[in-house]
Design a protein that fits this description.
Largest sheet: 7 strands, mixed
Helix content: under 10%
Structural class: mainly beta
Oligomer: single chain
Order of helices and strands: EEEEEEEEEEE
Distance between the termini: 40 Å
Strand content: over 45%
Shape: elongated
Length: 118
Amino acid sequence: QVQLVESGGGLVQPGGSLRLSCAASGSILSIYVMGWYRQAPGKQRELVATSGGSTNYADSVKGRFTISRDNAKNTVYLQMNSLKPEDTAVYYCNADIRNYALRSSVYWGQGTQVTVSS
């Protein structure tokens, strides 16, 4: 089995920074795409950033958020700077993983709360 475990969420003032981490563990042969999504109360889950052959960002976070990966640790990070109240959401890690049986599946983490408020 595969697990994604997120960490790094919390409460921060507007203009502040947070760094989220997501570590994948288990039966992992390779990881193609890793990314972050978020879901605010009453809204649909939306893409924040992905990292595969290239990196992609939602327009709302471009220039403020940076996604990076440590492939040796099967870990993806999201550095969030200049945070705004509208960034408040539960942030979910996502990964497209191939296991040793050569089967690929998409996995989700449990989510970590990010609250931007004064």
